[in-house]
Design a protein that fits this description.
This protein is an alpha/beta fold and 210 residues long. The chain contains four helices and ten strands. The longest helix has 13 residues.
């Protein structure tokens, strides 16, 4: 983390919770993360254009499964409801919504979070975990506004799982947002822009721009 030249925030993933050290996993599962990565597992950053809300969705008693707690849902909802003129980005390692072909279970509590947040205002969800790229608006509940999910794959890894290493560059501008996918394959070993996805806010939520 030390060579990063820009301000950064982070949230825990399932590999940041100790797996085999059972006592530490039970008593202080986030101690190593707090020491080496960030002291706050749920950071919040406010800029002139946006509020970024980090959520810890890990679960100490399971290496793979995840959950969002009622207090976290309330916190996110309160920020969405009161963020006048600013876009709220909810950042979590685990996704709140899966494509139909994904076989992993959706995070426990995700449906409740999405239903509540969609009634409180427009927002964007940033996530990872599934090692694949997805950018899409989706409806949490019929008649509710559509939320926007930006789901990134792995940034730096030799375990490519058939996918390229990638990251997203997100640009905010008023009621519009652009997510650019940047990838590097095992053959190129160099990151390059691959695709660009633009959306804007409407009364029914996020809609795709040409």
């Amino acid at each position: 983390m030390d060579p990063l030249q820009h301000p950064s925030i982070a949230v825990l993933g399932n590999h940041d919770i100790l797996l085999f050290t059972i006592i530490a996993r039970a008593l202080a599962p986030r101690a190593a993360y707090r020491h080496w990565i960030a002291p706050d597992p749920e950071p919040m950053v406010e800029t002139p254009d946006a509020i970024i809300v980090g959520l810890d969705t890990t679960y100490r008693w399971s290496h793979e499964h995840s959950l969002i707690r009622p207090a976290q849902i309330d916190r996110g909802g309160q920020i969405i409801r009161t963020a006048t003129g600013k876009l709220v980005l909810i950042m979590a390692h685990h996704p709140f919504h899966h494509r139909p072909e994904i076989k992993k279970k959706v995070m426990k509590g995700a449906a409740n979070a999405l239903t509540q947040w969609s009634t409180w205002g427009p927002h964007v969800i940033l996530s990872g975990h599934l090692h694949s790229w997805t950018v899409e608006p989706f409806v949490a509940q019929k008649s509710h506004p559509m939320a926007l999910q930006v789901h990134c794959g792995t940034g730096l890894s030799t375990r490519l799982r058939g996918e390229a290493n990638e990251y997203a560059i997100i640009d905010l501008g008023g009621d519009q947002i652009t997510a650019q996918r940047v990838t590097a394959t095992a053959q190129t070993l160099r990151f390059a822009a691959e695709s660009r996805h633009a959306y804007w806010q409407t009364a029914t939520g996020w809609q795709s721009l040409p």
